[in-house]
Specification:
Blueprint lengths: L16 H8 L14 E8 L4 E9 L5 E9 L2 H14 L4 H4 L4 H8 L6 H19 L2
Length: 136
């Protein structure tokens, strides 16, 4: 899996300014390191379908997301959605971010309607990480 490649050529007219911003300057990209006891991971998508996203969340004992890492394989919209979501949830409690949706991600980044599915996969990976952290 790769993280965002800020030097990759992108047709600027195909993406909103918000997508380009997160694509070129991804937030929280990469794997988490150090003590992994309080880290939960979730993955969604498949390379075969052109999009794969993994989220890692480091949780404090009170349920705060203290650190976020992500890796993704996909188009600029996928990478931007993962970056945006990571930036939004870091430092917040799990209960505060448990209701985030792909539609919110899509609106915040002004994704093209045909890219909503990318935001859904990002949401699914994030929810899988939350689920792993809940012990269910």
């Amino acid at each position: 899996m790769t993280t965002a490649l800020s030097n990759s050529p992108v047709m600027v007219s195909d993406f909103s300014a918000a997508v380009l911003n997160h694509y070129r300057r991804p937030r929280c990209a990469g794997e988490l390191h150090g003590d992994m006891r309080m880290v939960c991971s979730g993955i969604a998508g498949a390379v075969k379908s052109g999009v794969l996203v993994q989220f890692q969340l480091r949780l404090s004992t009170d349920g705060t997301i203290t650190e976020v890492g992500w890796q993704a394989y996909g188009c600029p919209s996928t990478l931007a959605a993962a970056s945006w979501l990571a930036a939004q949830v870091q430092g917040k409690s799990v209960s505060d971010v448990a209701t985030v949706t792909a539609v919110q991600i899509s609106r915040a980044l002004q994704l093209a309607p045909d890219r909503l599915g990318r935001a859904v996969i990002v949401e699914d990976a994030f929810r899988a990480a939350l689920q792993a952290g809940s012990g269910d």
